[in-house]
From TrEMBL:
It comes from the Bacteria. InterPro entries: Epimerase_deHydtase (IPR001509), NAD(P)-bd_dom_sf (IPR036291). This is NAD-dependent epimerase/dehydratase domain-containing protein. Residues 3-235 form the NAD-dependent epimerase/dehydratase domain. Pfam families: Epimerase. It comes from Candidatus Uhrbacteria bacterium RIFCSPHIGHO2_02_FULL_57_19. Belongs to the NAD(P)-dependent epimerase/dehydratase family.
Amino acid sequence: MKILVTGGAGFIGSHVVDALVARKHRVTVLDNLSTGKRTNLNPQAGFIKMDVASPLVGSATKRLKPEIIFHFAAQKDPRLSVLDPVADAKTNVIGLLRLVKAGLECRIRKFILASTGGAIYGGANKIPTPETYPAHPLSPYGVSKLASEHYLHSYRHAGGFPSVSLRLANVYGPRQNPKSEAGAIAIWLGRMARGQRPVIFGDGRQTRDFVYIDDVVRAFLSAMSKPATGVINVGTSKETDLNTLCGKVARAFGSTQRPVYAPSKIGEEHRSAVAIRLAREELGWKPTTVLDDGLRRTVRWFHEQHKIKR
């Protein structure tokens, strides 16, 4: 199939592109390389350097005539969304709508959105949180992702535009950028590699649901091949507090640096883990990588990429 992947030079998108190419699909990546890396691009995929919010996205998409669109391109940092909600909405909402309009004209088979769990559920008091829990985003980022889901819902029910939104937990693994504003594991590894202490924002007792990249890729492939539509959580349903996680990362890396604590970030929830019953039922999916194994694989890749001797 002909497939368009926005954000395909980024962390999650590039892994999905690799899996699609390995399955002999004809893949084109659309990415502005603002956070994605050219080195992440699969050489067997086509590439268009373009911002997803550009007015040219529609014509570029229609020239490709994709059958499937995977949409990963996004502004992903809740803190930055608080500082500049207009830029957040431009990328996450306007970018999505440009793709949807083009997708409708191309009569695509399915639109698959990378959404978010914790940022949409906000301070949920039901953990792990199911898809039916009332949305209560605490940041403009969560609001823009929720709006994207609602737009897809409206077009889906208007007819002729099948879509599925995967609400991701905290994804980690190889290729995650240690210089980004999000992705604690990669950021800590980057600091440890420079001999610096890892920084924990808040008291470290806040929890997250950490899911390994290979498991997430399988979920996206299932979302493409299965008839499932609507909103589906993708995670492990398990909470890990940041103090515990930081200790695990340090041990896997071989660092004795203890964390330093900084003020909590604006717009972040205290507890987060997503329920995955629907993913099991609709996608036939479940995570298979336990946290310690995933961390070992991530650290091994990090050492190899940065030529760090253990």
